[in-house]
Amino acid sequence: MTTEKVEINSQGIRRILKKYTPGQAIAEYIWNGFDAGASTVSLDFKVGGIPNGALESLKISDNGSGISHLSLKQEFKPFFVSKKYDDDKQKKTLPHGKKGYGRLTFFVFATKARWTTVFLEEKVNKSYSIAIDSRNLQEFEAIKPSLSDKGTGTIVEFENITLTTFSMGEIERFLQAEFAFFLELNKYNAYSIKINGFPLKYDLLMIKKEVENLIISTKPTLEFEITTVQWTDRNTEFSNIYLINSEGEEVYKTTSRLNKKGDSFLHSVYIVSRFFDNFFVHAGDNTIPALGITNSNKDPEYKTVIERVENILREIRKPYLKGKSNLIINQLEKEGVFPDFNSSHFLEKYRHDELVLIVRELYIAEPRLFNELNIDQKKIFIRFLDLLLTSNARNEVFEVLESIVNLDEEEVKNLSSMIKRTSLESIINTVELIEDRLRVIENLKQLVFKPELNTNEKDHLQKLIEKHYWIFGEQFHLVTAEEPDFEEALRRYRRKVYGESSDININSSDKQKEMDIFAIRQNKFSESIEHIVVELKHPKINLGEKELSQVKRYMRVILSEDRFNAGNMDWKFYLIGNDFMKDGYIEGEIQSAEQHGERFLVYSLNNIKIYIIKWSEIITSLEVRFNYLLEKFKTKRNELASQATTAQGVLAENISLTSVMPSQIARGKQKKP
Question: What's the fold here for domain 2-199?
Answer without folding.
Answer: Heat Shock Protein 90 (3.30.565)
